[in-house]
């Protein structure tokens, strides 16, 4: 009964999405307020019914209703409750429903936080979002119904893929989808503005916080996914350049470009046609990512079980959404000229150059991801494009991005001179060269990659400090340091933290890439192994069965000299329902290094294979991502956006008063 | 929302979160340090899993750039599929027999094709793959240079025009009849 | 509408065309680089007479099929009737390459099993399977450890190689052969090779 209720709710959501897609757009084109006003309640109603559908599906999972196909293939009565709940999105249909739900959530957020925007504009935005919703909910209902019954019901389910039974997987997909789907708001704003032909500073200002928040979600989602891979896959890698990882990374790169381009469009009115193209691009690439994961055109460890019908449907959706947007762009963009003028050496130029570089990087990752498909389509053989290619291509492209990222904030808007800029930058640049190279020698790992990484990271950190110093000196009018610190707008802190985050990230990537150490040993009780100055004492293995798996858990004392730091307990699990072995690594996380241990097979003589890893500075990778995400939160929290909101709403009230 | 709220520093909660995260992140290792319950020095050193750890390191390095054919998208180092295991053994045997990494790669490519290589070889069919990023970069840089030059030209024109206008204004103010204002169309520009 | 603003649209449409074509392809099927190359040399024990060995050169002068199979392979069961009926038509000799009969079967703990043990058990299992399901093979050889399989670039079972009179591999079929595959692809190719010789 409950699945049928969910199915019915999803149908109702589709109807409301259609209403939301059609009525406000008609209202906006005929200038009829009553029709435009339908958008908000329709969107909120749609959200309500999608949530009802989602809750119904979750109930079926929690109750282990194995007459539901999806629960039978992705859950098990012995699965822990939390993984019954998250198992809902551990498959194609359920994750698509999560996709639709986060789209509805973003739409509702637009209805709530758009009171200050012109009604006709909001109506168009909601209309565009409505069409996207129609596309996805109909995709669900037509090709991927999550409420499909299984007759006759089976007695026991096949359980969720053990890889997904992990805390990281509880938050990774919702964050990632909130990020992916969040770009739909910036997209809808761009299309609404294109429809009217008015892409002005106001449009850019309205788009900025939405884009930034979506970017924060995407950053966090990617970081959590990478963290999951790090401890769950059992050998300490953190990024694999898998097509599905790339599918989330490409929109991230374009979204980063969009955030910065919007800043210029708002402040200086420049780059308007470029900005609108990026807004379309970011969402289109998020859609493309969805296509790649679900169509089966590309093999990936993450791909869902596939069906060509689904691939065709989502490709059609892709062609309609992107095709219509680009036609609209080709029609309207030629009118978008002008904007504030700026000189060759200016902050505008640095931002535009970085935008181009980010777009080139995104296009290169896309090229590498899809090249095997192109070759195959042209019948020119099958190849694989993996980490060696992406690393060879990506590092040279991102190096100038990081340099420009630090130069930009030191440049003035409009125009600046070359020599004053060099004078401003020379001291930190020189110091960074010395510190970076010196560190590479100190850690005795002088390769060009280590030196480059360390110099760049040192420069990002030093130049960030210099930037903060300059900022505080500029405000020397205020007496106290705390007052001067408080006077700095939140958006500036956002920029500062985000850029600093990149520096921290580079430190992590460089040092773990250069200095990590690994050792595979066979251990018996009482035996000891040494790695990177740490001692590991093997104390034996006990059974440690969980609700839906059997496990062997090793106890390993981690020592530094004579001092015990902690006890590590890696496990080897066998999930009963799928008969799938899993390695649960045990990690001692520290600010300067992780010590990572995973348990392998038991050998004939009773000893166990144990893999030991020393990963210096690896947590800096995620600290860097955290700083970037925090930077985004600061940027979006800037009071400028709220002040305009208050200002506008008072103006609207006044206007309404006059009208009445 | 009250007016004085908007003057408050809005980022305060976010800063709090940052401090909290930093504290959480910095604490674990040192906090977990406990007095040793058993000195490790006594234990006998465990043997390495591979008879020859140096060789094993090379085997794993090479295995990481070779693709497992039966897996979705994993290297033969990561995968535990039987074929991955067989191929890893092949790599080990051949390296042990003194063959070079290139020999081993050639051996596998002869049998399974370029598909096994995560680093695709440079040939006609992959020229666009390897050259693509550079082409994109030059294309992007070219476009950027063109845009900036066009903008600079526009900028100079505006500046130049306003300079003549200023000169005209000056001459008008000075009441110099020798330089009459140009035609209305031109001056309006 | 200026032409340059149409560039993104045109690029996207070309791109979408590729993706649409990509949907018709199977990304998991890897073509063999051995096509038109000499068949790899091997010398393996025969299933029917383990003390005698068999190699590719024993088939010189004939067009033949090499079919990779194992008793644990589920898809082989699906293709087996096709092979049996092909063998009855007597158009082409089929040589079976029994691939990792014991160690390929994930359910068996191989620790402590000696090679002699493994060979004996493999022979027993393989013979029983052929007795149960019919034997389409002129003969089968035993690739106990899968080494010859690697030389043939085998990455999944079943796979089938078509070899010409000069001992060159002319075609490789990946996965189970269906009756349609046989009629539309394999038989015409076999006929062509037989005529050519």
Automatic annotation (TrEMBL), chain A:
List the transmembrane segments.
6-26, 47-64, 96-114, 121-142, 177-197, 209-229, 249-265, 277-305, 311-331, 352-374, 394-413, 425-443, 449-469, 490-513, 617-637
Gene Ontology terms, cellular component aspect? plasma membrane
What sequence ranges are listed for the domain Cytochrome c-type biogenesis protein CcmF C-terminal? 315-639
The GO biological-process annotations, alphabetized, read as:
cytochrome complex assembly
Pfam families, A to Z: CcmF_C, Cytochrom_C_asm
Instruction: Give residue ranges for domain Cytochrome c assembly protein.
Output: 89-295
Single GO MF descriptor = lyase activity
Q: What is its main location?
A: membrane
The record's family statement is:
Belongs to the CcmF/CycK/Ccl1/NrfE/CcsA family.
Q: What does this protein do?
A: Required for the biogenesis of c-type cytochromes. Possible subunit of a heme lyase.
Q: Supply the name of the protein.
A: Heme lyase CcmF/NrfE family subunit
Please tell me the species this chain comes from: Thauera phenolivorans
């Amino acid at each position: 009964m409950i699945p049928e209720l969910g199915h019915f709710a999803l149908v109702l959501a589709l109807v409301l999405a259609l209403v939301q897609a059609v009525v406000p757009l008609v209202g906006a084109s005929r200038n009829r307020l009553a029709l435009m006003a339908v958008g908000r309640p329709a969107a909120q109603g749609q959200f309500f019914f999608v949530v009802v559908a989602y809750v119904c599906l979750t109930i079926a999972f929690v109750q282990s209703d194995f007459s539901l196909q999806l629960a039978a293939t992705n859950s098990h009565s012995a699965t822990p409750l939390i993984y019954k709940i998250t198992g809902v999105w551990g498959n194609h249909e359920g994750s698509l429903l999560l996709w639709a739900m986060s789209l509805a959530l973003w739409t509702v957020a637009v209805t709530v936080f758009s009171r200050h925007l012109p009604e006709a504009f909001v109506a168009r935005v909601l209309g565009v979002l409505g069409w996207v919703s129609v596309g996805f909910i109909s995709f669900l209902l037509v090709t991927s119904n999550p409420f499909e019954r299984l007759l006759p019901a089976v007695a026991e389910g096949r359980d969720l893929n053990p890889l997904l039974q992990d805390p990281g997987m509880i938050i990774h997909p919702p964050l990632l989808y909130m990020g992916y789907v969040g770009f739909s708001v910036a997209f809808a704003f761009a299309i609404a503005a294109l429809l009217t032909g008015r892409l002005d500073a106001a449009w850019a200002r309205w788009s900025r916080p939405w884009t930034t928040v979506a970017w924060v979600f995407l950053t966090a989602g990617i970081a959590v996914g990478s963290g999951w891979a790090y401890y769950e896959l059992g050998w300490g890698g953190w990024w694999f350049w898998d097509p599905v990882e790339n599918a989330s990374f490409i929109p991230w790169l374009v979204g980063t470009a969009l955030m910065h381009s919007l800043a210029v469009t708002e402040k200086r009115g420049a780059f308007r046609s470029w900005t609108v193209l990026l807004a379309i691009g970011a969402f289109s690439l998020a859609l493309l990512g969805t296509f790649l994961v679900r169509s089966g055109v590309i093999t990936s460890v993450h791909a869902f079980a596939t069906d060509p019908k689904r691939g065709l449907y989502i490709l059609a959706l892709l062609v309609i959404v992107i095709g219509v947007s680009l036609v609209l762009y080709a029609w309207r963009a030629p009118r978008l000229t002008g904007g504030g003028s700026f000189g060759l050496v200016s902050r505008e130029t640095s931002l535009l150059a970085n935008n181009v570089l980010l777009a080139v990087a995104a296009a290169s990752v896309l090229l590498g991801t899809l090249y095997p498909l192109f070759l195959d389509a042209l019948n020119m053989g099958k190849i694989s494009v993996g980490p060696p290619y992406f690393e060879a291509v990506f590092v040279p492209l991102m190096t100038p991005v990081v340099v420009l990222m630090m130069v930009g904030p030191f440049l003035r808007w409009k125009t600046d001179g070359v020599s004053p800029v060099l004078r401003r930058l020379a001291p930190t640049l020189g110091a960074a060269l010395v510190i970076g190279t010196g560190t590479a020698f100190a850690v005795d790992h002088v390769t060009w990659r280590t030196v480059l990484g360390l110099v760049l990271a040192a420069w990002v950190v030093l130049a960030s400090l210099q930037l903060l110093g300059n900022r505080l000196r500029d405000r020397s009018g205020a007496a106290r340091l705390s007052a001067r610190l408080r006077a700095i707008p939140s958006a500036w802190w956002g920029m500062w933290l985000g850029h600093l985050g990149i520096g921290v990230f580079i430190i992590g990537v460089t040092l773990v890439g250069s200095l990590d150490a690994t050792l595979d040993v066979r251990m018996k009780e009482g035996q000891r192994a040494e790695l990177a100055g740490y001692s590991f004492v093997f104390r034996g293995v006990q059974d440690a069965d969980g609700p839906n798996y059997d496990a062997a858990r090793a106890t390993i004392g981690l020592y530094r000299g004579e001092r015990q730091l902690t006890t590590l307990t890696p496990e080897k699990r066998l999930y009963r329902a799928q008969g799938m072995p899993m390695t649960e690594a045990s990690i001692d996380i520290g600010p300067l290094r992780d010590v990572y241990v995973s348990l392998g097979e038991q050998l004939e003589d009773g000893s166990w294979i144990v893999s030991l890893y020393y990963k210096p500075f690896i947590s800096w990778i995620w600290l860097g991502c955290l700083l970037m995400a925090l930077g985004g939160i600061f940027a979006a929290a800037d009071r400028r956006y709220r002040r305009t909101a208050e200002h506008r709403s008072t103006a609207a009230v006044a206007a309404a008063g006059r009208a009445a | 929302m009250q007016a004085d709220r908007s003057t408050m520093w809005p980022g305060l909660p976010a800063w709090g979160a940052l401090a909290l995260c930093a504290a959480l992140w910095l604490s674990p290792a040192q906090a977990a340090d406990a007095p040793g319950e058993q000195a490790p020095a006594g234990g006998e050193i465990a043997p390495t899993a591979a008879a020859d750890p140096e060789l094993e390191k090379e085997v794993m390095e090479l295995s990481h750039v070779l693709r497992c054919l039966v897996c979705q998208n994993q290297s033969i180092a990561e995968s535990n599929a039987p074929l991955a295991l067989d191929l890893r053994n092949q790599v080990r045997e051949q390296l042990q027999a003194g063959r070079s990494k290139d020999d081993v790669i050639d051996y596998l490519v002869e049998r399974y094709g370029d598909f096994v290589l995560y680093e695709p070889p440079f040939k006609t069919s992959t020229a666009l793959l390897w050259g693509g990023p550079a082409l994109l970069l030059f294309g992007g840089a070219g476009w950027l240079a063109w845009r900036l030059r066009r903008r600079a030209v526009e900028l100079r024109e505006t500046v130049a025009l306003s300079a003549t206008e200023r000169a005209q204004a000056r001459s008008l103010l000075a009441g110099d009849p020798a330089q009459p204002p140009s035609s209305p169309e031109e001056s309006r520009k | 509408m200026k032409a340059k603003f149409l560039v993104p649209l045109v690029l996207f449409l070309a791109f979408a065309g590729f993706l649409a074509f990509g949907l018709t392809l199977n990304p998991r099927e890897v073509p063999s680089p051995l096509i038109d190359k000499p068949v790899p040399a091997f010398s393996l024990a025969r299933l029917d007479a383990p003390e005698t060995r068999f190699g590719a050169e024993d088939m010189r002068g004939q067009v033949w099929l090499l079919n990779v199979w194992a008793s644990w392979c589920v898809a082989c069961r699906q293709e087996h009737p096709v092979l049996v009926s092909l063998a009855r038509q007597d158009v082409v000799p089929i040589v079976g390459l029994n691939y990792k009969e014991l160690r390929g079967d994930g359910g068996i703990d191989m620790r402590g099993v000696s090679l002699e043990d493994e060979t004996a058990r493999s022979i027993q299992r393989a013979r029983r399977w052929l007795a149960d399901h019919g034997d389409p093979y002129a003969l089968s050889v035993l690739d106990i450890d899968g080494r010859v399989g690697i030389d043939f670039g085998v990455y999944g079972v079943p796979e089938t190689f078509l070899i010409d009179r000069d001992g060159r591999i002319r075609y490789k079929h990946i996965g189970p052969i269906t009756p349609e595959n046989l009629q539309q692809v394999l038989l015409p190719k076999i006929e062509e090779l037989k005529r050519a010789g």
